[in-house]
Amino acid sequence: MYVKDNKMGHTLDITIRVSILLICLGYIVLAFPGYAPLPELTAQVNAQVLNTVGIPAISLERYVVVSFSQADHIYELSSECSGLLVYLMFLIGIAVVPYFSAYNQLFALLFLPILFLGNALRILTGIIVGFRFSVDASEFFHATVGQVLIFFWVLVCFILWLKLTRNFPKEE
Prior knowledge:
A three-stranded antiparallel beta sheet has the order 1-2-3. The chain is elongated, with a radius of gyration of 19 Å. Strand 2 (about 65) and strand 3 form a beta hairpin. Helix 1 runs antiparallel to helix 3 (about 85-95) and helix 5 runs antiparallel to helix 6 (about 135-145). The chain starts with 6 loop residues before the first helix and ends in an 8-residue tail after the last helix. The protein is mainly alpha-helical and about 170 residues long. It has helices spanning about 5-30, 40-50, 85-95, 100-110, 110-130, 135-145, 145-165, and strands at about 55-60, 65, 70-75.
């Protein structure tokens, strides 16, 4: 656990917490309404992985166009689908919980790519479900199973971060 033992450490701790919160708030305000580049980057990653596994797809801005057997299907990646809320929940959780050292807070930033990949995998799985079964199955997966998966992914990342930084509560 982090113990505030001097004024400089306490000032640095507060500065990092406020900086994380201001960066989150600044991104929300400045990137509104499209929240670029998150949707575009997520669309590009998904299109590349789909092509790698043999499913023809291209990304156009925040859209992924997938060639199904009967017709092409267009998936729009909104800011919510691109994981914006997931990243913000994780970062705000890190910033507002007291007693984490500055090192541990900065270490948490390494989990952002892991969260990004987990969210991209969630979207990718939904598209593959649509490709293999139907567009309706894809929409159902996205609205139900996919939401549960990303919620648990954030929890797993947070718990893993707590364990790696030795901040996970221990029984006495």
